[in-house]
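Structure tokens please, single chain.
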Amino acid sequence: MKKLAVLSIILTIIISSVFAQTTIKQIKDRGYLLVGTSGNQLPYTYKQEDGTFVGVDIELAKELAKEMGVEAKFVQIEIPYLIDSLKAGNIDVILSGFSITSERNLEVMFTDYYFETGKAIFSNNSHLLSGKTKNINKSDVKLLALKNSSSIDFIKKHYPNATIVEGTGKDDCVEKLKTNQADAFIGDIEICDYYAYDGRFKNFDRKILEETQSSDHEFIAIAVSPNDILFFNFVNNFIKEQKSKNGDNDNEIEQNWERYYDYE
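Here you go.
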């Protein structure tokens, strides 16, 4: 029995090594890194009308590809299907404002986080902008969030009495807010900041929520297949290098944020 256990471990290590080497070789042979991204989460990722992608995660992906001596090719995939696409080998990495959760971590490996965030509320309702749970967790309050995002889970956890309105992307969320289909938008602080800079919103503001101020923080990272140990190590070391280039409090990744707040 012990011999079988040892053999099983050895085979696992060998198979993992083969997968890792094959993945890196495939990327180099094809000449580009396949990046899965939603394309609807400015300032993280956004697909423009001409088909090109912009955003902080897009720039980070291009830098990662450059380190490998290849180009980055972006594949637009809705958030709920990103992990399945990664597991199927249709993409090499996920870069899409993708927060680390226990559920996701059961299926993929996450690098060191490259950004820490939390949830905020964006609204023109002064009671909701208090950020207080007692004002938000009401049955007559309609809360908008990106479909299948961690913000939906956040609302279900902290505001179970509120009505959830799902948005399919940036433009859809803007339309729902402007036409009063929702009372407020719940999302990552940076996404709410982007809306706050959007000239289409008058008398709107954003407020960091009570739960985020106390403990409920999120960590954004790159997701990689658990089969690719060598590739994971490469991507993880890349993130560490990016974070340390200009010091922990002023790293290169954070420097890219502000210019996307004025985007469009």
